[in-house]
Amino acid sequence: MNQPVPLPSTREPGSVRLVLSLALAGLISGIAIIGVYEATLPTITANKARELREAVFKVLPGVARMQRLEFIEGSLQPTEGGAVNDQTLYGGYTSNGDLVGYAIPADGPGFQDTIRLLYGYLPKERKIVGMEILESRETPGLGDKIYKDLVFVANFSNLVPDPEILTVKKGTRSAANEVDAITGATISSKAVVRIINEAHIRWQPRLPSVAPAMPLPDNETGPETGKPPREIR
Amino acid sequence: MIKKEPDLLIQATPMLRQEMTTPRAMLDVWIALIPVILAAVWFFGVGALLLLLTTIAGGLMTEWVFTPADKRRGVMRDNSSLLTGLLLGLTLPPGLPLWMAFLGGAAAIGLGKLIWGGLGSNLFNPALVGRAFLLGTFPIAMTTWSPAMGPGHFFEVQGSLFALPFQTPVYDAVSAATPLGLMKFEQQSTALSKLLIGNTSGSLGETSGLLLLLGGLFLLWRRDLDWRIPTAIFASAALFSGLLYLVNPVQFPGPLFTLFSGSLLFGAIYMATDPVTSPLSPRGAWIFGIGIGFLIVLIRGFGGLPEGVMYAILLMNGATPLIDRYTQPRVFGRQARSG
Amino acid sequence: METDKNLDAYQEFVKGLWRDNPVFVQVLGMCPMLAVTNSAINALVMGGATLFVLIGSSFLVASLKKWIPKQVRISLYIIIIATFVTVADYSLLALMPGVHKELGAFIPLIVANCMILGRQEAFASRHGVRFAVLDAAGMALGFTLALFALGSVREILGNGSLFNIPLFGDTFEPWVIMILPPGGFITLGLILLVFNWAAVRKQRFMQQVAEAERETL
């Protein structure tokens, strides 16, 4: 057989050379990573924004525009960018700029991990008109029915959250504030309801039914008016 | 001078592990279970018999396929697969489709026994491995309980049993919550007399408390059973559930309900006492049983599922090698081992 | 250059697919193997990302090996691998956000896939660029093949679909455990069983053939 061939450098190199080669590699790798990051960042941000827009339009039917709002010092004020916290929600407007309702993000513990969701709330009718799960790690095949089972999701398209939403056994929904639980995934269903109940208690007193005006000009166009502008590559 | 024999290996009983007596011991358990089987058929109709036969068939077939041809005769004749299949069958809900039961029998023998190297080498109780596999695989079918029927419906077999393979079963009757389910989700207790006789809903073999105890006494008389394990389970389950009951009598059931509901009796008498997967020394048996009782109360009281006997026993099965190691009796006349 | 003269390009490529398959034979890279194979598409994307990282780093390591001091080679390999992984991570996030969400932390964790570091140390750093890339491609494809085998079995049984196309209609009863981690272990164990069984059978067959030949000679 062949003799094992020694690695290229047989002489013991000085530590300066070792440090230099590592530093150089780190530098090149850093530059490469920054380059890729810069190149992909616009697409990533646009993807996230589009996902959010789609979710807002889904939970608030009939909405043409949206505006991010923040609850600051007792009133809702339009904001741009920044981190989403539990003071953030989204206002949905008609194309004339009249307020339709609010899309409220909420989260809480599910069966396995935190469930993040968005629900649409009409302040005038005091009604929930839609619910969309943004992020969850519920058991596939059971807990994930909270977004895969359209019958369950439909519970939230016409739901009165006062005095509080109750989870009832599947098929026994009788009042406007009741939700049919999913068979075999009672805990996940109850988690969704609990998250909404808690968010509702926090938000209900803060929401004016007339709402801050839609600032102009707006660039957040809805699905009816065509596709949102894509970023330039 | 006394001659020491340090090379002589002295072990706690049993000196003879299985081999000689396996088929006989298995036969005894079969005899002890006959009343339980009859009760299952009485309450749930001939469908119960079909389910039992299917799990046994699934187990035997797996055993046959995966055993080398020259060893088949010996392995098949020790009755252990028959018993595993039967025990698994008795823990299934009465309306489970037969194809699932067959799969469960195959998983019990395949994943619970053969993969470890056959009888005697398995760490976990094979029947419970099969049941855990089924519960993980078909969580809805495994928790859909059809109510106990009267003798008038004896020959009616539930349609869900005959669901085609890979198909979702369609149930004839409205499912009924088990006594444990009623307790956990609706804070409703069930009369003790019903639990003793067994006309409640639940797994095939777990409902009738009296018949299970009768079988246990038979096994005790035949000395097939380490009495310490069931005793420890009963005592610790009663103790811990009693404590919880004192704290909050609305949410937590009392000790009697705890003992006679669900599969506690069945698990304590027939599953936890499996000689392969339980500790050998008396002290180990006590620890093992107390652990199971505690875990049952813990899972029933605070877990997501109403019943926790299966996981409690499996967890303590997993701890058995450790228990054995630390409770090995000191050889008489020797110093305590240091370190 | 080491022993490249004795190497056969085709053999170096094919060995990763079956004979030295990183999963079934070397049992490497178990973490992504078990974690992300709950559907065929996840398995393929994971395999694709691994392919990109492995070919890229093998190529770089093989072409730079003269300048890599052996005392710090592992750190340099890791820097190279990590760079490619980060590139793959951002590209996936931009191009396939849905799949990226499902794969989650397992894309960054490709760095820790010992199969990749293993190929650098055992092959790329000792051979020419051409063979290093061929070896990397073969190994990564073998890995992808294994992921896909596991992923499709688990998706078919656990969800009744393949590439999200339902196979059995509405009344299919999913085997929930197959989608969950235990299903990964069970399926992998069964596949390894079949693999070893086939290997033993083949060996026995070859022995018989050799014996028969000896007798006839």
Offer a concise description of the structure.
The complex is a heterotrimer of chains A (233), B (339) and C (217). Chain A has 233 residues and is an alpha+beta fold.
Strand and helix layout:
The complex is a heterotrimer of chains A (233), B (339) and C (217).
Chain A: H1 15-59, E1 65-72, E2 75-78, E3 88-93, E4 99-109, E5 114-122, E6 127-135, H2 145-148, H3 150-154, E7 166-168, E8 178-180, H4 186-203
Parallel strand pairs in A: 7-8
Antiparallel strand pairs in A: 1-2, 1-3, 3-4, 4-5, 5-6
Chain B: H1 22-44, H2 46-66, H3 72-76, H4 80-90, H5 98-112, H6 126-137, H7 179-186, H8 192-197, H9 209-221, H10 228-247, H11 255-260, H12 264-271, H13 282-302, H14 309-326
Helix pairs in contact in B: 1-2, 1-9, 2-4, 2-5, 4-5, 4-6, 5-6, 6-14, 9-12, 10-12, 10-13, 13-14
Chain C: H1 9-14, H2 30-35, H3 40-64, H4 73-95, H5 97-103, H6 114-122, H7 129-159, E1 161-162, E2 165-166, H8 176-179, H9 181-216
Antiparallel strand pairs in C: 1-2
Question: What sequence of helices (H) and strands (E) makes up the elements of chain C?
Answer: HHHHHHHEEHH
Low-confidence stretches of chain C: none
The biggest beta sheet of chain C is recorded as:
2 strands, antiparallel
Strand content of chain C: under 5%
Supply the number of helical segments of chain B: 14
Molecular shape of chain C: flat
- Give the largest interface pair and sizes: A-C, 29 and 36 residues
Please give the radius of gyration of chain C in angstroms: 20 Å
Cα end-to-end separation of chain B: 28 Å
Characterize the main sheet of chain B: none
The largest sheet of chain C has its strands arranged as 1-2
CATH topological fold name of chain B: Ammonium transporter fold
Shape of chain B: globular
Description of the molecule:
Chain A is built from four helices and eight strands; from the N terminus they run H-E-E-E-E-E-E-H-H-E-E-H. Chain A is α+β, with helices and mostly antiparallel strands and 233 residues long. In chain A, 31% of the residues lie in helices and 23% in strands. Chain A is globular. In chain A, the strands form two sheets. In chain A, strands 2-1-3-4-5-6 form a six-stranded antiparallel beta sheet. With 339 residues, chain B is mainly α. Chain B has helices spanning 22-44, 46-66, 72-76, 80-90, 98-112, 126-137, 179-186, 192-197, 209-221, 228-247, 255-260, 264-271, 282-302, 309-326. The two termini of chain B are 28 Å apart. Chain C has one domain (4-216). The mean pLDDT of chain C is 85.
